């Protein structure tokens, strides 16, 4: 399981993101405890960012992380989740990985399913 940096604010995080944390933990395997949750509802993000509504989380590799196959980590994690999750690789100016931005964006309201007849 990724660790949390001490200043991370988790208050207001959508519970659906717990499933994303479980999924990336399974993907990272033995490397999971070398990764850190660096932001949930704290920090500065783009205007309109899902961080501000508790629907995004940033997870990045710590100095002792061994895995660097970030696209594979992204793809394998997404394969464990529904299509309502997205993972974006965020890079530093020098092109090294900063973190994985994971967001949950439901595609339809809670009580609707595709194909249901109106009632
Ligand atoms: Zn983010």
Verbal overview:
Helix 1 crosses helix 2. This protein has helices at 16-28, 70-78, and strands at 3-4, 35-39, 56-61, 85-91, 97-104. It is globular. It is built from two helices and five strands, in the order βαββαββ. The model has no long low-confidence stretch (mean pLDDT 93). Strands 1-2-3-5-4 form a five-stranded mixed β-sheet. With 119 residues, the protein is α+β, with helices and mostly antiparallel strands. The N and C termini lie far apart (43 Å). The chain has a single domain (3-104), classed as 2-Layer Sandwich (Muramoyl-pentapeptide Carboxypeptidase, domain 2). 18% of the residues lie in helices and 24% in strands. The chain binds zinc ion. Zinc ion binds at residues 39, 45, 51, 56, 58, 101.
Write the layout of secondary structure elements.
Elements: E1 3-4, H1 16-28, E2 35-39, E3 56-61, H2 70-78, E4 85-91, E5 97-104
Helix pairs in contact: 1-2
The structure holds zinc ion.
Classify the helix fraction into a percent range. 10-25%
CATH architecture: 2-Layer Sandwich
The ligands bound in this entry are: zinc ion
Into which percentage range does the β-strand content fall?
Answer: 15-25%
Please give the order of strands in the largest beta sheet.
1-2-3-5-4
Mean pLDDT rating: 93
What's the level 1 CATH class? Answer: Alpha Beta
**What about the largest sheet?**
5 strands, mixed
Count the helices. How many?
Answer: 2
| Unreliable residue runs | none
Keywords:
119 residues, alpha+beta, Muramoyl-pentapeptide Carboxypeptidase, domain 2, 5-stranded mixed beta sheet, 5 strands, 18% helix, binds zinc ion
């Amino acid at each position: 399981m990724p660790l949390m940096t001490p200043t991370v604010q988790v208050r207001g995080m959508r519970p659906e993101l717990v499933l994303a944390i479980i999924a990336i933990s399974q993907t990272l395997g033995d490397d999971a405890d070398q990764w850190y949750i660096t932001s949930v509802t704290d920090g500065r993000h783009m205007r309109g960012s899902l961080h501000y509504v508790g629907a995004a989380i940033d997870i990045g590799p710590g100095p002792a992380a061994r895995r660097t196959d970030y696209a594979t980590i992204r793809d394998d994690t997404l394969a464990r989740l529904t299509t309502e999750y997205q993972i974006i690789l965020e890079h530093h100016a020098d092109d090294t990985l900063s973190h994985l931005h994971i967001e949950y964006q439901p595609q339809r309201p809670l009580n609707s399913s595709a194909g249901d007849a109106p009632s």
